[in-house]
Structures are given as structure tokens and as C-alpha cells.
Amino acid sequence: MAEVLVYVDHVDGAVRKPTLELLTLARRLGEPVAVHLGPGAETAAPVLAEHGATRVLAADAPEFADYLVVPKVDALEAAAQAVQPAAVLVPSSGEGKEIAARLALRLGSGVITDAVDVEAGEQGPVATQSAFAAAFTTKSRITRGTPVITVKPNSAPVETAPAAGAVEALEVTFGDLARGTKVVSRTPRESTGRPELTEAAIVVSGGRGVGGAENFAVVEALADSLGAAVGASRAAVDAGWYPHSNQVGQTGKSVSPQLYIANGISGAIQHRAGMQTSKTIVAVNKDPEAPIFDLADYGVVGDLFQVVPQLTEEVKARKG
Amino acid sequence: MSLRIVVAVKYVPDATGDRRFAADLTTDRDAVDGLLSELDEYAVEQALQIAEAADDAEITVVTVGPEDAKDALRKALSMGAHKAVHVEDDALHGTDVIGTSLVLAKAVEHTGFDLVVTGMASTDGTMGVLPALLAERLGVPQVTLLSQVSVEDGTVTGRRDGDAASEQLQASLPALVSVTDQSGEARYPSFKGIMAAKKKPVESLDLSDLGIDASEVGLGGAWSAVDEATARPARTAGTIVKDEGEGGKQLAEFLASQKFI
Ligand SMILES: Cc1cc2nc3c(=O)[nH]c(=O)nc-3n(C[C@H](O)[C@H](O)[C@H](O)COP(=O)(O)OP(=O)(O)OC[C@H]3O[C@@H](n4cnc5c(N)ncnc54)[C@H](O)[C@@H]3O)c2cc1C
Ligand SMILES: Cc1cc2nc3c(=O)[nH]c(=O)nc-3n(C[C@H](O)[C@H](O)[C@H](O)COP(=O)(O)OP(=O)(O)OC[C@H]3O[C@@H](n4cnc5c(N)ncnc54)[C@H](O)[C@@H]3O)c2cc1C
């Protein structure tokens, strides 16, 4: 059976959830072979194996952390050459997309980004994408070379499918461009203890209607009662009320949770682009004409400072 | 010596319009008015600031797109760029990102550059990969997704705010940078700028000028294909209630009915 390369997104061997989702998709196309770059392959391997990786190709070198993107492209290219895969799947992060595109060009292949589903087809993998702020759904295919596809988080369930997943060393020779862009320093983002925005099952967001940084406590309290991640509109981020890393929308994160709760957010097209594919959408807004209500499965027209704390109390009471 | 800056800008359908696909599943450019991709205004702005900080710099804006894409070039020129290059050819219709990167790379090489500046992503295709592809083709460092950038003594430095960490990056010129919408508000063209833009040179190039064979681009030359595009069914109208003092409780009832609590 053909093999499918899956690029592993991890922090020192702690595998991030989107990679496990890719393994689910990869199993539809062939036998998943994980590519693990940087430290921690031995930690990651059992997790990858449990989710279907038949092999784990691992390489570690200081270049992966010290220089931007290109060393990882060199490594994936080496893996693709060694394995001759039927497809390469990469998580759709800013970096993942850049790696995938450069890899595709080197392999003489087309590239598809931000797939929300991947299935086997008669002429190779078929990717589903959302286009024009999720107003359209497209099905696309790579017509030349080895299909390279990046996949958004929350696009497939995580499934256990135990496989061998033995670690094998991957030989990588870095090219001339590998050391082009130096990472001079790196400041890890502080953990909030809340779920990762793109991976969360529930996202609670606040917009300009929240009215100030200190008022975000109201949004956070609801999020915590539900075990949710916190999001923000660009208006709230631009005002300095919440970090940009929490922005939802075209120039922030794109989320697709089971439940999205928009508080004091009008529902501009650029915001919708990042949340429209959520399964259930709830809105609290004092303006009955706000476009966000066109998307909402349930909406409350009212002052968020009345509605949201009452909801939080009720959630806590019901959860006991 | 003069710092040669090339800014890649895309002409896109207005995101607030009713964007859709044409019969051949390419972007329907007649359905909605086009404009300079808003995210590329940030690229023009950063190029202008880098040029202002340099002793001597020249900014060329380049676009690959149909006849009307000149509007995007004019806007960038009215903001303060010095000259423009427009690559236009009927054979380009339906080109994928791999093909677009080929054309842009040739156009940028034709122009000559020390620094290429791009936006973070277009507002229509939204792939966010063209900058990386362009750097790969040009064989220069990619210093991308920057929320802050500066150029001094032949070195580019910038901050990249990634998912897991914020990174300080550094590379030597020639290089390619892409900037995000966190890099700083773009200026509005002044009346003087708009008048001056009318006299600035716009060079028109076609594929043969760049030595590209038509078979390498267009729908036929694409390495990916769209087989199907369907409008997402409108979300079925939900229940909207007015808060009369019990709104939070009603909402909790809905969440419980959907098994979220
Ligand atoms: C290129 C580009 C990219 C962009 N990218 C993004 C992006 O990634 N993400 C994003 O969000 N935006 C993005 N935007 C901005 C977008 O166009 C909107 O400006 C933004 O989403 C508005 O945020 P908002 O809904 O919080 O604010 P507003 O549109 O001002 O809406 C505030 C809402 O709060 C309601 N409200 C006020 N007070 C209360 C109260 N007490 N209780 C209840 N409701 C209240 C109001 O009725 C109103 O509907 C982008 C724009 C451009 C041009
Ligand atoms: C909805 C949709 C989905 C698509 N999906 C795919 C796909 O999966 N695979 C594929 O190969 N193609 C795809 N395309 C085609 C692709 O968008 C175009 O080929 C496009 O020219 C480049 O991609 P982008 O607009 O996404 O650029 P991005 O990578 O998002 O653009 C980043 C930056 O590159 C510069 N730039 C981009 N295009 C131009 C240009 N024409 N002229 C000058 N500068 C430019 C700008 O500075 C821009 O800010 C898609 C197009 C659409 C409309």
C-alpha cells in the first residue's frame, strides 16, 4: 500500500492535536509515515504509532530551531525522496503552509492549502476547501507530482489505530538557503491554561461591544465555565483589549469549533471568514440588526453585561 | 547605492461584495468591483517607511493580473511608490499559485531588487504561500509574516508572531519579506499623491517579455484543479430572543438542549 507523509507539529515531542487529525486523514489515502523534526521523537513516536503511524522518520539538528522554514523543507524533501509518498499532509499553520508550498515547488507538484477535508479519489486525493469567507465549498485535486495538502485544525476526528511506528533516522543535508534567515531570539507565548483557540471544541469571543480590556473578564468567565478558548474580533485586538494571538478572522485564527459564542461582535465579513464553519453559532448583541444574527442558531438581543454573567451562573449551576 | 525595493500587490474582488466563481471555476471578476488587496496596503506602507529611512531608495510595485489591475498599481503609486510593472497576458487566466510565483519571480528579476516586500495573504485566494514560493524561486532568504520590520546596513530584521512563540528574525539582503496587518496602519494617498501617480511610469509586460511559455501558466498549466464549487447553503434561520431579564437563562436552556452543558 502507498505511504503518505504526515508532518508532525509538536513542542519538544508533545504532539499537537491537528497532527493526530492528519493521521486519520492519511489513513484514508494509504499508510501514514510521520516526519518528526527537532528534539523529542522518542516521546512522540508512541503517540504517533497509537494513531496510525507505521513509521516515524526523525531528524534532529540545531538548524530546525535556529533558522526559519527552509531547514524543515530540506528535511521533508529528503523524506519525500526516500519514501516516494502518494501524498504529503501538513497542518495549516502559517509556518506549515510555507513549508508545504516550498516543498511542493521542489517536488514539481501542485499545492492545496487550508483543506477542511481530504478523501481518496480516482485521480488522487480530493481536498475540500472553503472559499470567499466560507460562502463557497470547493473540491480540488493536484494534477501534477506528489499532492501536497495543508489541512486546517478540527477537520477530522482523532482516532486510535495502533501501528508499529518505529523511529527511523532520516538523513538530511541542508542546502545553501537553509541558513538564510536566522532566528535571533524566541519568546514562547505564555500559556493561559485555556484550550488552544484553533483546537477548542467551544470558543467564546468578545468584540468592540465588550468595551475595554478589564471587561474581557466577563467573556473569560463564561469561557472558563464551559472549558472554552477565548477569541476576539480585530476591533477588540486593535483597541489593545486582547492579544492578537486570540484574534478570530481573516487575519487572525480560523476556527471551526462545535460551538462559537460571539459577544458584542457585529459579524463583519472578515470576522465571519474565521468562524463561519463553526457547527453551532450563538450571538449576544444589543443591535437586533447586527449581521451576526444571520448566522446564529440562537441569538439573544440584549446587553452582554446582563446576558453573559447570567449565562455563566446558569452554566455553573447546571454543571454543579 | 540606491536600495531597490519591489512590492508585489494583488488586484482582488472586493470582499464586501458578492464574490463567486465563474463557469470555469475561476474567480468571477465581473461579479464584483476590484481593488488593491487591503492586506497589500500594509506591504506598500512598510516599503515606504523602509525607503524613507534609507538614504536613497526606489520602490517599484508589481502586479500580475488583468487590465483592471492597473487600478491597484495606481493606488500604490498614489501612496508614494515610484514606478510600476504590470504583467498582463490572456494566457494567465486561471493560473495557480505555482504559476503565479513563476511569473512574479521573472518580473521581479526583470526589475532588479535588493528587497521584495509582499502582503501576508491575498484577500481572495488567501493562501499565504506566495511569498515563500517567491523566495524559493529567487533563491533569497524569506523573512515572512512580520509584524515589525526594519532594514539597516544591508540587514533585514523583524518580528514574527507565530502560534507558539514570537521570533526575532534576521537576514542579509537581497531578501524577501512579507508583512502582516499588525505592522502598522497604511497611509491614505494625498491629493498631491493621486495627481503625481498619474505621471508615474507603468511598464506593461507580457509572458514573452519574461521568457515564459504560455503552457507553463493558465488553467491548462496549473498543477492543481478545482472540480467543483458549491455555494454553502445559507444557515437555517435560528431562534432570536430579546432579553427581557431571562436572556442568559434562555441561552443556557438552548445550550443544554444541544448537549453543550
Ligand atoms: C483586510 C481586513 C482584514 C480584517 N481581518 C479581521 C479579522 O481577522 N477579524 C476580525 O474580527 N475583523 C477583521 N477585520 C475587521 C472587520 O472588518 C470589522 O471591523 C471587525 O470585525 C469589527 O469588530 P466588532 O464586531 O468587534 O466591532 P463592531 O463592528 O464595532 O461591532 C460591535 C458590536 O457590538 C455590539 N455591542 C456594543 N455594545 C454592546 C453591549 N453592551 N452588549 C451587546 N452588544 C453590544 C454592537 O451592537 C455591534 O454590533 C478586517 C478588516 C480588513 C479590512
Ligand atoms: C478561493 C481560491 C482558492 C484557491 N486555492 C488555490 C490552491 O489551493 N492552490 C493553488 O495553487 N492556487 C489556488 N488559488 C489560486 C491562487 O489564489 C492564485 O494563483 C493567486 O495568484 C496566488 O495565490 P493567493 O492569492 O492565495 O496569494 P497569497 O499567497 O495569499 O498572497 C500573498 C502575497 O503575494 C502577493 N501576490 C499574490 N498574488 C499576486 C499577484 N497576482 N500579483 C502580485 N502579487 C501577488 C501579494 O503581495 C500577496 O499579499 C485559489 C484561488 C482562489 C480565488
TrEMBL record, chain A:
Belongs to the ETF alpha-subunit/FixB family. The keyword tRNA processing does not apply. Heterodimer of an alpha and a beta subunit. It comes from Actinacidiphila acididurans. InterPro entries: DHS-like_NAD/FAD-binding_dom, ETF_a/b_N, ETF_a/FixB, ETF_asu_C, ETF_asu_C_CS, Rossmann-like_a/b/a_fold. SUPFAM superfamilies: Adenine nucleotide alpha hydrolases-like (SSF52402), DHS-like NAD/FAD-binding domain (SSF52467). Residues 4-183 form the Electron transfer flavoprotein alpha/beta-subunit N-terminal domain. SMART domains: ETF. It comes from the Bacteria. This is Electron transfer flavoprotein subunit alpha/FixB family protein. Signal peptide: none annotated. The electron transfer flavoprotein serves as a specific electron acceptor for other dehydrogenases. It transfers the electrons to the main respiratory chain via ETF-ubiquinone oxidoreductase (ETF dehydrogenase). It holds the Pfam family ETF. Keywords: Electron transport, FAD, Flavoprotein, Transport. PROSITE patterns: ETF_ALPHA. Its cofactor is FAD.
Automatic annotation (TrEMBL), chain B:
Gene3D superfamilies: HUPs. Signal peptide: none annotated. Its cofactor is FAD. It comes from the Bacteria. Heterodimer of an alpha and a beta subunit. The electron transfer flavoprotein serves as a specific electron acceptor for other dehydrogenases. It transfers the electrons to the main respiratory chain via ETF-ubiquinone oxidoreductase (ETF dehydrogenase). Belongs to the ETF beta-subunit/FixA family. This is Electron transfer flavoprotein subunit beta. It comes from Actinacidiphila acididurans.
